[in-house]
Amino acid sequence: MLKIIVMSDVHILPEGVVKHGLDTSERFAIAIDDANTFHDDADLCIYAGDIADEGDAASYARFEALRAGNPIPSFVMMGNHDNRPTYLETASDPMVDDNGFVQGIADIKGYRVIMLDSSEPGRVDGVLCNDRLAWLAARLAEAKDRDLPVILVLHHPANRLHMPVDTYGLTDADKLASVLLESGARIAQIVAGHCHIPTAGSWHGIPVATISGNQHRVGLHLRNMTRQQPCYEGAAQFAVLLATTSGVTVHFHNYVDRNVQLPDAMFPWKRVQKFGPED
Protein backbone atom coordinates (compact mmCIF):
# COMPACT_ATOMS: atom_id res chain seq x y z
CA MET A 1 0.00 0.00 0.00
CA LEU A 2 1.19 3.50 -0.89
CA LYS A 3 0.89 6.10 1.88
CA ILE A 4 1.26 9.82 1.12
CA ILE A 5 1.06 12.81 3.46
CA VAL A 6 -0.09 16.06 1.81
CA MET A 7 0.41 19.27 3.77
CA SER A 8 -0.67 22.60 2.30
CA ASP A 9 -0.92 26.31 3.07
CA VAL A 10 1.92 26.23 5.55
CA HIS A 11 2.26 30.06 5.45
CA ILE A 12 5.55 30.29 7.35
CA LEU A 13 6.44 33.79 8.57
CA PRO A 14 9.75 35.26 9.77
CA GLU A 15 10.67 34.49 13.36
CA GLY A 16 8.62 36.48 15.87
CA VAL A 17 5.85 37.33 13.39
CA VAL A 18 2.28 36.03 13.75
CA LYS A 19 -0.74 36.56 11.50
CA HIS A 20 -4.39 36.49 12.55
CA GLY A 21 -3.06 35.68 16.01
CA LEU A 22 -1.61 32.38 14.77
CA ASP A 23 2.02 31.25 14.87
CA THR A 24 2.20 29.18 11.71
CA SER A 25 5.71 27.95 12.46
CA GLU A 26 4.57 26.56 15.80
CA ARG A 27 1.65 24.86 14.09
CA PHE A 28 3.89 23.45 11.35
CA ALA A 29 6.25 22.05 13.99
CA ILE A 30 3.23 20.27 15.51
CA ALA A 31 2.38 18.88 12.06
CA ILE A 32 5.91 17.53 11.60
CA ASP A 33 5.88 15.96 15.06
CA ASP A 34 2.45 14.45 14.39
CA ALA A 35 3.61 12.96 11.09
CA ASN A 36 6.71 11.53 12.74
CA THR A 37 4.69 10.06 15.61
CA PHE A 38 1.74 8.58 13.75
CA HIS A 39 2.74 8.36 10.08
CA ASP A 40 6.44 7.55 10.04
CA ASP A 41 5.62 4.70 7.66
CA ALA A 42 4.54 7.14 4.93
CA ASP A 43 6.26 6.78 1.57
CA LEU A 44 6.07 10.46 0.60
CA CYS A 45 5.29 13.84 2.12
CA ILE A 46 4.18 16.58 -0.29
CA TYR A 47 4.08 20.24 0.75
CA ALA A 48 1.47 21.54 -1.68
CA GLY A 49 2.18 25.25 -1.83
CA ASP A 50 1.85 28.53 0.05
CA ILE A 51 5.02 27.63 1.89
CA ALA A 52 6.02 31.19 2.87
CA ASP A 53 3.26 33.69 3.55
CA GLU A 54 5.20 36.59 2.01
CA GLY A 55 7.49 34.59 -0.28
CA ASP A 56 10.58 35.88 1.54
CA ALA A 57 13.95 34.17 1.96
CA ALA A 58 13.87 34.23 5.77
CA SER A 59 10.58 32.34 5.84
CA TYR A 60 11.80 29.75 3.33
CA ALA A 61 14.91 29.22 5.46
CA ARG A 62 12.71 28.76 8.51
CA PHE A 63 10.55 26.27 6.62
CA GLU A 64 13.61 24.29 5.54
CA ALA A 65 14.85 24.16 9.14
CA LEU A 66 11.49 22.91 10.40
CA ARG A 67 10.94 20.32 7.69
CA ALA A 68 14.42 18.94 8.30
CA GLY A 69 12.84 17.17 11.25
CA ASN A 70 10.68 15.12 8.90
CA PRO A 71 12.57 12.03 7.67
CA ILE A 72 9.86 11.06 5.16
CA PRO A 73 10.99 11.63 1.54
CA SER A 74 9.41 14.93 0.57
CA PHE A 75 8.65 17.31 -2.28
CA VAL A 76 7.90 21.03 -2.05
CA MET A 77 5.43 22.79 -4.36
CA MET A 78 4.47 26.42 -4.98
CA GLY A 79 1.27 28.37 -4.27
CA ASN A 80 0.10 31.90 -4.90
CA HIS A 81 1.84 33.26 -1.77
CA ASP A 82 5.17 31.86 -2.91
CA ASN A 83 8.00 33.47 -4.82
CA ARG A 84 9.45 30.84 -7.12
CA PRO A 85 12.90 32.45 -7.72
CA THR A 86 13.38 33.17 -4.02
CA TYR A 87 12.39 29.64 -3.10
CA LEU A 88 14.76 28.12 -5.66
CA GLU A 89 17.62 30.26 -4.32
CA THR A 90 17.06 29.11 -0.73
CA ALA A 91 15.86 25.51 -1.13
CA SER A 92 18.19 22.67 -0.25
CA ASP A 93 16.78 20.15 -2.74
CA PRO A 94 14.25 21.84 -5.04
CA MET A 95 12.10 19.91 -7.48
CA VAL A 96 12.27 21.80 -10.78
CA ASP A 97 11.59 20.98 -14.44
CA ASP A 98 13.45 22.11 -17.56
CA ASN A 99 11.36 25.30 -17.78
CA GLY A 100 12.01 26.34 -14.19
CA PHE A 101 8.64 25.31 -12.78
CA VAL A 102 8.55 23.62 -9.39
CA GLN A 103 6.97 20.36 -10.46
CA GLY A 104 7.87 16.73 -10.87
CA ILE A 105 6.84 13.09 -10.52
CA ALA A 106 7.35 10.10 -8.28
CA ASP A 107 6.70 6.56 -9.52
CA ILE A 108 6.16 4.45 -6.43
CA LYS A 109 4.31 1.28 -5.44
CA GLY A 110 2.38 1.00 -8.68
CA TYR A 111 1.33 4.67 -8.90
CA ARG A 112 2.57 7.78 -10.65
CA VAL A 113 2.34 10.85 -8.40
CA ILE A 114 2.37 14.08 -10.42
CA MET A 115 3.03 17.37 -8.66
CA LEU A 116 1.91 20.24 -10.91
CA ASP A 117 2.95 23.88 -10.45
CA SER A 118 -0.15 26.11 -10.72
CA SER A 119 1.37 29.31 -9.30
CA GLU A 120 1.75 32.47 -11.37
CA PRO A 121 3.68 35.57 -10.21
CA GLY A 122 1.44 38.43 -9.10
CA ARG A 123 -1.77 36.41 -9.22
CA VAL A 124 -3.92 34.78 -6.55
CA ASP A 125 -5.64 32.42 -8.97
CA GLY A 126 -3.92 29.42 -10.50
CA VAL A 127 -2.56 29.34 -14.05
CA LEU A 128 -1.40 26.51 -16.29
CA CYS A 129 0.54 27.86 -19.26
CA ASN A 130 1.18 25.88 -22.43
CA ASP A 131 4.57 24.70 -21.16
CA ARG A 132 3.05 23.26 -18.01
CA LEU A 133 0.17 21.64 -19.86
CA ALA A 134 2.59 20.08 -22.36
CA TRP A 135 4.76 18.80 -19.51
CA LEU A 136 1.68 17.30 -17.85
CA ALA A 137 0.52 15.65 -21.09
CA ALA A 138 3.93 14.02 -21.51
CA ARG A 139 3.94 12.70 -17.94
CA LEU A 140 0.42 11.33 -18.37
CA ALA A 141 1.40 9.59 -21.61
CA GLU A 142 4.26 7.91 -19.77
CA ALA A 143 1.89 6.81 -17.01
CA LYS A 144 -0.51 5.34 -19.55
CA ASP A 145 2.29 3.47 -21.33
CA ARG A 146 3.43 2.00 -18.00
CA ASP A 147 -0.13 1.28 -16.85
CA LEU A 148 0.32 3.44 -13.74
CA PRO A 149 -2.75 5.09 -12.18
CA VAL A 150 -2.13 8.77 -11.42
CA ILE A 151 -2.44 10.82 -8.26
CA LEU A 152 -2.29 14.52 -9.14
CA VAL A 153 -1.40 17.18 -6.56
CA LEU A 154 -1.53 20.92 -7.23
CA HIS A 155 -2.11 24.00 -5.11
CA HIS A 156 -5.24 25.44 -6.73
CA PRO A 157 -8.40 23.29 -6.87
CA ALA A 158 -9.70 22.74 -10.40
CA ASN A 159 -13.24 21.92 -9.34
CA ARG A 160 -15.79 24.44 -8.12
CA LEU A 161 -16.53 24.53 -4.41
CA HIS A 162 -19.53 26.83 -4.97
CA MET A 163 -17.91 29.30 -2.59
CA PRO A 164 -16.21 32.67 -3.22
CA VAL A 165 -12.84 30.91 -3.55
CA ASP A 166 -14.02 29.80 -7.00
CA THR A 167 -13.26 33.32 -8.26
CA TYR A 168 -9.56 32.76 -7.54
CA GLY A 169 -9.22 29.01 -8.05
CA LEU A 170 -7.61 27.44 -11.11
CA THR A 171 -8.28 29.71 -14.08
CA ASP A 172 -7.28 27.05 -16.62
CA ALA A 173 -9.46 24.29 -15.20
CA ASP A 174 -11.06 23.49 -18.57
CA LYS A 175 -7.64 23.11 -20.18
CA LEU A 176 -6.55 20.83 -17.37
CA ALA A 177 -9.66 18.71 -17.80
CA SER A 178 -9.00 18.35 -21.53
CA VAL A 179 -5.41 17.22 -20.96
CA LEU A 180 -6.43 14.72 -18.29
CA LEU A 181 -9.36 13.24 -20.18
CA GLU A 182 -7.62 13.11 -23.56
CA SER A 183 -4.55 11.40 -22.10
CA GLY A 184 -6.31 8.10 -21.55
CA ALA A 185 -4.41 7.73 -18.27
CA ARG A 186 -6.25 6.53 -15.18
CA ILE A 187 -6.60 9.54 -12.87
CA ALA A 188 -7.19 8.00 -9.47
CA GLN A 189 -7.27 11.16 -7.32
CA ILE A 190 -6.64 14.91 -7.37
CA VAL A 191 -5.66 16.72 -4.15
CA ALA A 192 -5.37 20.50 -3.74
CA GLY A 193 -5.02 23.16 -1.07
CA HIS A 194 -5.50 26.94 -1.40
CA CYS A 195 -9.11 27.12 -0.18
CA HIS A 196 -8.46 26.48 3.55
CA ILE A 197 -11.39 24.07 3.88
CA PRO A 198 -11.68 20.28 3.60
CA THR A 199 -13.90 19.09 0.75
CA ALA A 200 -14.39 15.94 -1.30
CA GLY A 201 -16.25 15.29 -4.52
CA SER A 202 -15.79 14.51 -8.20
CA TRP A 203 -14.89 16.61 -11.23
CA HIS A 204 -15.36 15.25 -14.75
CA GLY A 205 -15.67 11.85 -13.10
CA ILE A 206 -12.35 12.21 -11.25
CA PRO A 207 -12.25 12.05 -7.43
CA VAL A 208 -11.10 15.36 -5.94
CA ALA A 209 -10.31 16.57 -2.44
CA THR A 210 -9.05 19.74 -0.75
CA ILE A 211 -7.55 20.24 2.71
CA SER A 212 -7.73 23.11 5.17
CA GLY A 213 -3.97 23.31 5.72
CA ASN A 214 -1.78 24.82 8.42
CA GLN A 215 -3.12 28.37 8.74
CA HIS A 216 -6.69 29.41 9.59
CA ARG A 217 -9.64 27.38 8.32
CA VAL A 218 -12.58 29.07 6.58
CA GLY A 219 -16.14 28.10 7.36
CA LEU A 220 -18.70 26.93 4.85
CA HIS A 221 -20.05 29.95 2.96
CA LEU A 222 -22.61 29.26 0.23
CA ARG A 223 -24.95 31.47 -1.76
CA ASN A 224 -27.69 33.11 0.29
CA MET A 225 -25.64 32.89 3.48
CA THR A 226 -25.79 36.55 4.44
CA ARG A 227 -23.24 36.57 7.26
CA GLN A 228 -19.55 37.25 6.71
CA GLN A 229 -17.69 34.04 6.00
CA PRO A 230 -16.31 32.86 9.36
CA CYS A 231 -12.68 31.89 9.88
CA TYR A 232 -11.44 29.57 12.61
CA GLU A 233 -8.23 28.88 14.47
CA GLY A 234 -8.52 25.19 13.55
CA ALA A 235 -8.61 22.56 12.57
CA ALA A 236 -5.10 22.60 11.15
CA GLN A 237 -4.98 19.57 8.96
CA PHE A 238 -3.09 17.43 6.50
CA ALA A 239 -4.30 14.68 4.20
CA VAL A 240 -3.30 11.05 4.46
CA LEU A 241 -3.68 9.18 1.16
CA LEU A 242 -3.76 5.39 1.12
CA ALA A 243 -3.55 3.89 -2.36
CA THR A 244 -3.88 0.23 -3.31
CA THR A 245 -4.61 -1.64 -6.52
CA SER A 246 -8.34 -1.07 -5.92
CA GLY A 247 -8.28 2.71 -5.38
CA VAL A 248 -7.38 5.67 -3.18
CA THR A 249 -8.70 6.67 0.25
CA VAL A 250 -8.20 10.23 1.54
CA HIS A 251 -8.24 10.83 5.30
CA PHE A 252 -8.38 14.35 6.75
CA HIS A 253 -6.08 14.30 9.79
CA ASN A 254 -6.31 17.18 12.28
CA TYR A 255 -3.17 18.02 14.24
CA VAL A 256 -4.53 21.24 15.80
CA ASP A 257 -8.16 20.76 16.79
CA ARG A 258 -8.97 24.12 18.41
CA ASN A 259 -12.14 25.13 16.61
CA VAL A 260 -12.31 28.71 17.89
CA GLN A 261 -13.80 31.36 15.59
CA LEU A 262 -11.45 34.25 14.92
CA PRO A 263 -12.79 37.84 14.99
CA ASP A 264 -14.43 38.91 11.72
CA ALA A 265 -12.41 42.14 11.85
CA MET A 266 -9.24 40.14 11.14
CA PHE A 267 -10.59 39.29 7.68
CA PRO A 268 -12.17 42.49 6.28
CA TRP A 269 -11.99 41.25 2.66
CA LYS A 270 -14.44 38.52 3.55
CA ARG A 271 -17.15 41.21 3.85
CA VAL A 272 -16.98 42.12 0.18
CA GLN A 273 -16.06 38.87 -1.57
CA LYS A 274 -18.23 37.72 -4.46
CA PHE A 275 -19.35 34.41 -5.90
CA GLY A 276 -18.49 33.26 -9.40
CA PRO A 277 -21.11 32.33 -12.01
CA GLU A 278 -23.32 29.35 -11.30
CA ASP A 279 -23.08 26.20 -13.43
Commentary on this structure:
With about 280 residues, this protein is of the alpha/beta class. The protein has one domain (about 1-270): 4-Layer Sandwich (Purple Acid Phosphatase, chain A, domain 2), CATH 3.60.21.10. Helices cover about 20% and strands about 25% of the residues. Strand 12 and strand 13 form a beta hairpin. Helix 1 runs parallel beside helix 2 (about 55-65) and helix 4 (about 130-145) runs parallel beside helix 5. The chain is globular and about 55 Å long. It holds the Pfam family Metallophos. Belongs to the cyclic nucleotide phosphodiesterase class-III family. This is Calcineurin-like phosphoesterase. It comes from Thalassovita taeanensis.
Percent range for β-strand residues: 25-35%
How do the SSEs run, as a string of H and E? EHEHEHEEHEHEEEEEEE
The rounded distance between the terminal residues' Cα atoms is 37 Å
- The secondary-structure class comes to alpha/beta
- The strand line-up of the biggest sheet is 4-5-6-7-9-8
Query: How many strands, what sense, and barrel or not for the largest sheet?
Result: 6 strands, mixed
Number of helices: 5
The total of beta strands comes to 13
Q: Which CATH first-tier class would you pick?
A: Alpha Beta
- How much helical structure, as a percent, in the residues? 10-25%
> Can you tell me the residue ranges where pLDDT is under 50 for at least 5 consecutive residues?
none
Radius of gyration: 18 Å
Domain count: 1
**Overall 3D geometry?**
globular
CATH architecture assignment name = 4-Layer Sandwich
CATH superfamily: Metallo-dependent phosphatases
Provide the CATH topology.
Purple Acid Phosphatase, chain A, domain 2
